[in-house]
Design a protein that fits this description.
56 strands; alpha+beta; DENN_Domain_GEFs; Rossmann fold; 7 domains; 36 helices; flat; seven-stranded antiparallel β-sheet; five-stranded mixed β-sheet
Length: about 1300
């Protein structure tokens, strides 16, 4: 259990000093000889106080569970071990960061793991233990212990001096009455915790000091033991925004919580480095850490070393320091600085000259004077942080208000110390928040473009291509950073798609261009706007030498060039409100006063009072703040566990499913379930919610534990022949293209007439040609007169050699929109055609002297003359290129799908690369295999029916970031709303898309840009979605869970687990929009649950006997249920009122209802069946009136139906041959039915696979999603 319980605030309290015998010897020697002469003593561990401090009386049945095994609280070091051996042992264990228990130097004592008693005395007295003639002021310093696994413990050390009096054990503050001189010896009190509560533990030790000043030596251990026992009663707050407060006379102390489980609590002053260093020096230090140099901090104040070091490491988040870290090196540990690896260590300033003289290649940082140097030079010759990010950081830093006194000038003077401390604490929290935002922004600006060069499927980072996109002056910095462990760990998180503060800020500060690229895959070339900006920023003189190799077409990311980054950063500095958001408000919960006596019954009473107070807190926020409610449940569950109230603890942890699963204590829960007694298990089985929880825990534990794949590899060119599967992987890894179908066509092109494998040399030539073409595109230098004729977003993708044309001599240029001629001599622009205006393209021959030269002729609408270009050997390739772009443009326009044009552009660039690397007579035949759209144009009639064209508004691809299309299982539209006063509260409407495997993609329904590329909601297929006014989206899954997504944070931290079978339907009673909405869910076994959507509690449970309950709807308070072979209307008490069975002719075949629509005002019920191409109309007001069949043309079955205004929209499975084929795929239909005339009003064709789902966007648009062979979403206008 010790391994699973979150530890309390205190892990151990250790007293270190000189032994009584040694002090007696020193006292006698000084009084006999009369001089101290800088006497240093060997410090020893005098006491180790660790839990448990309380045991239950023997006649009681069960003890309060201790955290860990029973340990003796008093330890006296043996004196056999010589000082040299102790120092050697200390050095050895400290190099490993500690983690051993007390060894040969102790009596029969067991101490908490991770506490190294051998190294601790040196660290408590890093300057040595001194005996003095005068009493010195108390001093504090801070320690961090790291074990070999990277786990940290934290220590706060208080040194105080006590008088040494011969023949007495009193520890009075006066000088005593002895005729001999009074001597003072130092003692250290070290409080050790798993959590970095430096300020809180310092406050605690300050409170202890008040008692120690008047106590006798014989009472000291008892006082310290009582102090330690109180701190073990203090739980650590769970991650979130709930802080804990407790009183330790005379102070009130606050434990801040960590922001989330992946980050530590911050309980120190993050502005200390800003007081010690100017921004330029601070940037130098950060650069050294990012490059994993050997860094040593120096200060004359031991306390500053750890506090500054901890702050610096926090500034690096989300990057986590992976190298040795010892912020305080005692005098005997300086040999650690000879370690050959990177490290971060701290030394006393008095060792500065010695360290600088005897070591090489160290970065020496003097905290006291703010200087940064090396052991060889007064300057640091290391690459600096890129200027754009550095300038932004410097400007932000200057706006920080880092002086508390200035902030308090206009405030009333505090007359109460705890009130003053509260003011200071609030000011510090706000300042810490601002500093974290500034440093996080710096990290985002440094690494923003890393994601552009990642392949998530194969976990590849293309470091070479990333480096090519950096400015020449930045290359060395990034090259060094990319080789570090700290960056490698960061890459793992990126490839795992971790959603943290870094990911959220990177998303919120994207440029408009980057947001647009998320909508459409665009091959990356410099746009006209970028060429103009580059020219204005005087970069063009280096144009030929600065080729920025771009990543490849299907990654769909923004181009990265310096002027774009600089303009983005300056925009953020001036106007970005996301960086000025105040910290989220926190709630402070006050613990009960500590019991006067620390007996078992007093501690039990303390815990009981704490549970009672938590119960009141839970009641007070029951329907207001689920996030805060989860923290109270967590704390109460933890305390119940300590009190062996296992069933109560399980009940509290069960409530985390409905409040916040992010803090769910999985290991503790497993231990609780395994430790249940037989009678407790029987009681749990009688409580449905606990029975479900126990079953879930058991099931999860029985699953095979699959280690997550967190490897990261750099892209390398292949060294052996590639079969098709290997070729697909390799092309995706290097980022050329993601789409599997396109890669298969590329494979066929490169293996034309050869065995079906690609030679590694051929792949290398192809890859090199592709990259060189990208780089050359950066060198296109168009005259300003030409740029003025083009759109800002246009890019030049292909340029011919200089040829003779019907409009003069020049080069033919191709953008994504048009062809134009760059005339020679006097630079000029002549538009040949826009792709949508082309009428005909063909190869001809033009006479030249006695021969005929191949030429390309292009006929354009609105222009009578034909444009002809004598392209010679380039003619056949340009013919393929122009026809493919023409076909892509035509399909994009007809289908309202811009991705067709993007894919055509990708095909063209691949053709160009194939022609460049396949130097054979069949190269043009090989390239023609990539002309996909031109082939479709000739094989399949491209004309889209007029009704479809007029109704279709747009198409989007939710699988844009995936290698292959995914089935669109469910669609949900949520309207925009203004819920807060700040700009972040204004929410655009959203489109929620459920794909296969529990993936949810979110689009901004105002611009149709992708907001969230993947919210993982379980791992099973998602069946239904529902939006509620409480800013929640409910999602029913095949795994029987209802997942709840917060529409603000886009996180899924709530689950409803009451269903036992797959959740198939969700509906809400919309009659009450303001109060708590009544929500209903159903599962396939016939269970229907009515929920209070605010408290997430089940209000009523119904059961319907049927083979499969597939969906439910509520109309006028009445539930309608789709039960496979019948539609059932339920009364309010759950009793079936009416049944509409399958038509007789469908009973003989295996068929079932797939969907239905109720129109109460018309007295109509419309039903559709999976295997029937017709709708059935039932009259709900007249049972005797027979049902009516409405045939659906071209449909083999109905998959979904929705009502929009006074229309019925029907999603169908198409028959073979309906609407033609597209590459062998069926084309399905969306049909619009008029319920009054009972006829099909519109037949709409936009998908090449069956329609899976329909949803309405405020009755203005209907969205349809299709199965995986198509995988797209069509947006239709409603009339």
């Amino acid at each position: 259990m010790a391994d699973h319980l979150p530890p309390a605030l205190l892990e151990a309290c250790v007293v270190v000093g000189a032994s009584v015998d040694k002090l007696r010897e020193v006292y006698q020697a000084v009084n006999n000889n009369g001089g101290l002469e800088h006497l240093l003593l060997e410090p020893e561990v005098l006491h180790v106080l660790a839990p448990p401090f309380v045991s239950r009386p023997q006649n009681e049945s069960e003890v309060v569970r201790p955290r860990g095994k029973r340990r003796r609280s008093f330890l006296r070091r043996k004196r056999e071990q010589p000082p040299s051996a102790a120092a050697a042992a200390a050095a050895a264990t400290q190099s490993q960061g500690g983690g051993a228990e007390g060894r040969g130097g102790s009596e029969d004592v067991s101490v908490p793991k991770d506490i190294d008693l051998m190294a601790l005395p040196q660290l408590c007295f890093p300057d040595g233990l001194q005996v003095t003639y005068e009493q010195r002021d108390e001093q504090f310093h801070f320690l961090v212990f790291t074990d070999v696994f990277g786990n940290k413990s934290h220590g706060v050390v208080m040194q105080c001096y006590r008088p040494i009096l011969e023949g007495t054990s009193s520890f009075h503050n006066g000088t005593g009455s002895s005729k001999f001189s009074t001597l003072f010896s130092a003692f250290s009190f070290c409080v050790i915790s798993k959590y970095p509560y430096f300020t809180a533990l310092k406050d605690c030790l300050s409170c202890l000091l008040v008692q120690l000043r008047t106590c006798r030596l014989s009472d000291m251990e008892e006082r310290v033991k009582e102090f330690a026992a109180k701190l073990t009663l203090v739980p650590v707050p769970p991650p979130g925004h709930l802080h804990l407060m407790f009183t330790l006379r005379p102070l009130t102390i606050v434990l801040p919580s960590s922001e989330d489980k992946d980050h530590p609590a911050i309980d120190l002053d993050l502005h200390l480095p800003f007081l010690c260093f100017r921004p330029q020096q601070l940037l130098q230090v950060m650069s050294c850490l990012l490059q994993e140099q050997r860094v040593v901090l120096f200060s004359s104040d031991w306390a500053r070393l750890t506090l500054v070091a901890e702050s610096l490491l926090l500034f690096l988040q989300p990057l986590s320091w992976q190298q040795p870290y010892v912020p305080v090196l005692a005098r005997g540990m300086l040999d650690f600085l000879m370690a050959p690896t990177a490290f971060l260590m701290g030394c006393h300033l008095s060792h500065f000259e010695e360290v600088a003289a005897e070591t090489d290649d160290l970065i020496l940082i003097n905290i006291d004077n703010g200087s940064v140097s090396t052991s060889c030079s007064d300057t640091v010759d290391l690459p600096n942080i890129p200027p754009a990010a550095a300038d932004c950081f410097t400007q932000r830093s200057q706006s920080l208000q880092i002086h508390f006194d200035l902030d308090q000038c206009h405030h009333t003077s505090c007359t109460d110390i705890n009130e003053q401390r509260a003011h200071r604490r609030a000011w510090q929290q706000n300042l810490n928040h601002d500093i974290q935002r500034i440093t996080l922004e710096m990290i985002v600006n440094i690494f923003r473009d890393v994601s552009c060069h990642l392949n998530y499927e194969h976990r590849v980072f293309n470091s070479e291509e990333f480096l090519k996109t950096r400015e020449p002056a930045e290359q060395l910095f990034y090259k060094k950073v990319l080789e570090t462990y700290i960056f490698h760990s960061f890459l793992k998180d990126c490839l795992n798609r971790k959603i943290d503060n870094y990911a959220r800020m990177e998303l919120s500060t994207r440029s408009e261009m980057q947001k647009m690229k998320a909508m459409i895959e665009v091959p990356r070339r410099p746009t006209m706007q970028e060429i103009q900006a580059r020219r204005k920023s005087s970069i063009t003189e280096n144009r030929l030498n600065k080729r920025l190799g771009m990543s490849l077409p299907n990654l769909g990311d923004a181009q990265t060039i310096s002027f774009k980054r600089n303009s983005l950063l300056s925009r953020i500095i001036v106007s970005d409100p996301a960086l000025r958001t105040p910290p989220k408000p926190v709630k402070v919960f006050k613990l009960p006063d500590f019991p006067v006596s620390l007996s078992f019954h007093s501690v039990q009473s303390y815990y009981s009072e704490l549970i009672q107070q938590l119960g009141k807190a839970i009641f007070s926020v029951q329907n207001e703040n689920s996030t805060l409610l989860a923290r109270f449940y967590y704390l109460r569950g933890f305390i119940n566990t300590l009190c062996s109230r296992r069933l109560d603890a399980l009940s509290d942890f069960q409530n985390l499913y409905k409040t916040d699963t992010a803090i769910f204590p999985t290991q503790l829960l497993t231990w609780l379930v395994d430790s249940l007694h037989r009678d407790e298990r029987q009681q749990a089985d009688r409580r449905p919610e606990l029975k479900r929880l126990i079953l879930k825990v058991k099931t999860e534990n029985e699953k095979t534990l699959v280690q997550p794949d967190d490897h990261v590899k750099n892209f390398e060119l292949p060294r052996k022949h590639l079969h098709q599967d290997d070729f697909v992987r390799c092309v995706q890894e290097c980022g050329i293209v993601k789409d599997v179908a396109t890669i298969h066509r590329l494979f066929d092109a490169l293996t034309d007439g050869q065995p079906k494998q690609v030679d590694p040399d051929l792949f290398r030539v192809f890859y090199t040609f592709w990259k060189e073409t990208e780089a050359e595109a950066q060198d296109v230098n168009l005259p300003t007169e030409v740029i003025d004729h083009l759109d800002n977003s246009e890019c030049v993708y292909k340029l011919s050699s200089c040829v003779k044309t019907s409009h003069g001599v020049g080069k033919i240029a191709m953008t994504q929109k048009r062809l134009f001629l760059l005339t020679e001599g006097q630079p000029g622009y002549f538009e040949i055609t826009k792709f949508r205006d082309i009428q005909d393209v063909k190869i001809a021959s033009a006479p030249f002297l006695l021969v005929r030269i191949p030429s390309l002729r292009i006929q354009t609408s609105g222009r009578p003359e034909v444009f002809e270009a004598n392209l010679k050997t380039e003619t056949e390739l340009w013919n393929l290129v122009v026809k493919e772009m023409w076909a892509g443009r035509k399909m994009a326009d007809q289908h309202k799908d811009p991705q067709y044009m993007t894919q055509a552009l990708t095909n063209v660039l691949l053709m160009d690369a194939v022609m460049g690397c396949v130097q054979t007579q069949r190269s043009i035949i090989a390239a023609s295999k990539l002309a996909y759209f031109d082939k479709i144009k000739h094989e399949v009639p491209m004309m889209v029916p007029k009704t479809t064209s007029e109704t279709l508004k747009h198409k989007i691809n939710p699988s844009l970031d995936l290698a292959e299309p995914q089935t669109v299982h469910v669609l949900l539209y949520t309207p925009g709303q203004l819920t807060c006063n700040d700009s972040e509260g204004e929410m655009n409407p959203k489109l929620w898309v459920a794909l296969s495997g529990g993936k949810v993609v979110v689009f901004d329904a105002a611009s149709w840009s992708m907001l969230q590329d993947c919210i993982q909601v379980g791992e099973s297929q998602l069946n239904c979605m529902l939006g509620l006014v409480q800013e929640q989206v409910w999602i029913g899954s095949q795994d029987s869970v209802i997942y709840i997504i917060d529409t603000h944070s886009m996180s899924c931290n709530k689950q409803l687990t009451e269903h036992r079978h797959e959740v198939t339907g969700l509906t809400v009673d919309t009659r009450d929009q303001h109060n708590s909405q009544q929500t209903y869910s159903c599962s396939s076994d016939g269970t229907i649950l009515q929920w209070d959507s605010t408290s997430l509690k089940v209000k009523r449970q119904l059961h319907l006997s049927c083979d499969r309950l597939s969906s439910i709807q509520i109309h006028d308070g009445t539930l309608w249920c789709c039960c496979g072979d019948r539609i059932v209307e339920l009364k309010k008490n759950g009793i079936p009122q009416r049944r509409m069975p399958l038509p007789d002719d469908l009973l003989s075949v295996p068929s079932s209802f797939s969907s239905f629509i109720v129109m109460p005002e018309r007295g109509q019920l419309w039903t559709g069946c999976v295997d029937s191409g017709e709708l059935c109309l039932w009259h709900t007001n007249n049972h005797r009136r027979p049902s009516k069949r409405i045939p659906l043309p071209g449909s083999s079955g109905v998959t979904c139906m929705i009502r929009v205004k006074d229309q019925i929209w029907v999603g169908c499975r198409g028959r073979s041959g309906v609407g033609g084929h597209c590459d062998g795929q069926l084309r399905s239909q969306v049909l619009v039915v008029d319920p009054e005339s009972h006829t099909v009003a519109k037949e709409l064709q936009a998908h090449s696979d069956s329609i899976q789902t329909l949803c309405s966007a405020e009755d203005r648009y209907v969205l349809s999603g299709s199965a995986r062979r198509d995988g797209k979403i069509a947006i239709w206008k409603v009339e």
